[in-house]
Amino acid sequence: MKKTFILLSLAAMSFTFSCAKQPSQNQQAESAVPAAQTAQSEANYTIKTIPANVHGEAIMQTIADNYKGKVVLFDFWATWCGPCRMAMKQIDEIKPELAKKGCVFVYVTGETSPEGTWKQMIQKIDGDHYRLTNQQWSELCQSLNIPGIPAYLLLNKKGDKAYDNLSQGGYPGSEILKNNIEVALTE
User: Fold this and answer.
1) How much is the average pLDDT of 26-37?
2) How far is it, in rounded angstroms, from Cα 140 to Cα 22?
3) Predicted model pTM
4) Is the peptide bond before 150 cis (omega within 30 degrees of 0)?
């Protein structure tokens, strides 16, 4: 009984921390469901790409260039990251109101998110979605100093950083994100 309680406590604690590392090949045991077999949802999502030959600091700039003149919240995540998925559920409570006001939500992940699983999951996540190559993901995380996910970057209409928690990671809370997005929308 005591062992069971300790194991359950450890399991619960593991979900309270951000996903600091990407899984190894062996840890990627998620089932890849072909997109053709997934049910259609009413989410408003778009898959976007950047050329595979874009590297280093140019990765983030290439993505950001698609949103000039807009307030945009970047969510760096992965399909295998429990805290990322939990954070998305929390942000869903404030997202519709902020999207109506003009905030664009952009989700960025890498190849550690199996493509079939990723395509299935994003059908329920309103926003623009990028799936980078392993090399691009690694270079992006290095250039932005992202040690773990989820992590967030908010750009104002000028394309300047209005808020981020990139070096800390984890979900900062809906109130913090909402307040920073609303300030950026008024600038």
Assistant:
1) 33
2) 14
3) 0.79
4) yes
- pLDDT tens per residue, range 60-112: 999 999 999 999 999 999 999 999 999 999 999 999 999 999 999 999 999 99
Burial class (CB in 10 A: 0-12, 13-18, 19+), 134: exposed
Closest residue by Cα to residue 167 from 142, 184, 138 = 142
CA distance 178 to 82: 22
β-sheet bridge partners, residue 97: none
- Distance of alpha carbon 185 from alpha carbon 187, whole angstroms: 6
Q: DSSP of 108-120, one letter per residue?
A: EE-TTS-HHHHHH
Residue position matching structure tokens 């996903």: 19
Amino acid at 69: G
